[in-house]
Amino acid sequence: MFYRRNWIAVIVVILGLVMFVPVAQAERQDFEGIICSAVTHSVVQASPGEIYIASADAKAIFQSTHQNKLFDNNTSHQVYVLKGAGGKWSWNGFFKRMAPDGDFIIWEFYGDSQSGISTSNAIYGTGKWKGIKGEAKGKRITAGTPIVQGTDQFCEKYVGWIELPK
Predict the structure, then answer these.
(1) Which of 63, 99, 100, 145 has the greatest number of CB atoms lying within 10 Å of its CB?
(2) CATH code, 86
(3) What are the Cα distances from residue 121, in Å, to 1, 56, 116, 125, 166?
């Protein structure tokens, strides 16, 4: 019986100490903002009313609307493929979002005209963004008439989150 009480006491002490061991947890941050892009299309095939296939190259800037100003004044370079058929559009590609200090995140994204939503997932980061995880949803809020054939200019509202390892 004496041994049993000793074991119980030892286990209670160990469990008590384990409760105070810091556990590495990710730091989650929310963000939202407006990203405005200028896009140039390289058309593979354009058959009006039938099919449109193109690659796209875009340059953009992000303006934060969140109180934490995460990603404010970040610039980005996007490359993606665009398909239009039967009045429906879809796209997928990658973009590099760069902070003013030069650290950047690579995001993979996809979307379609039926939902009107672009979904982005963080897949790589450098510097302060190393080990990043995250997701964002974007929806077009305005678009202008293209000023030059084969281009697009538009703005999207983005809302998302990131997690950084501690």
Answers:
(1) 99
(2) 2.40.350.10
(3) 58, 19, 17, 12, 20
If phi > 0 it is left, if psi is from -120 to 50 it is alpha, else beta; for residue 3 that is alpha
Which is nearest to 165 in space by CA: 22, 25, 21? 25
- Bridge-based pairing of strands 74-85 and 51-64 is antiparallel
Which 3 state secondary structure label does DSSP give 16? helix
- Structure tokens belonging to residue 97: 């979002």
Write the DSSP assignment of 75-135 as a string of letters.
EEEEEEEEEEETTEEEEEEEEEEE-TTS-EEEEEEEEETTT-EEEEEEEEE-GGGTT-EEE
Q: How far apart are CA 110 and CA 118, in angstroms?
A: 6
> Tokens representing 157?
């509202």
Asked if residues 132 and 163 have their Cβ atoms less than 8 Å apart, the reply is yes
Question: In this structure, which amino acid lies at residue 42?
Answer: S
Question: What confidence tens digit (pLDDT) does each residue in 97-124 have?
Answer: 999 999 999 999 999 999 999 999 999 9
How many Cα atoms within 13 Å fall on the side-chain side of residue 58? 29
Residue 146 inside a domain? The answer is: yes
Number of domain units in the chain: 1
Q: What is the pTM of this model?
A: 0.82
In a domain, 20, yes or no: no
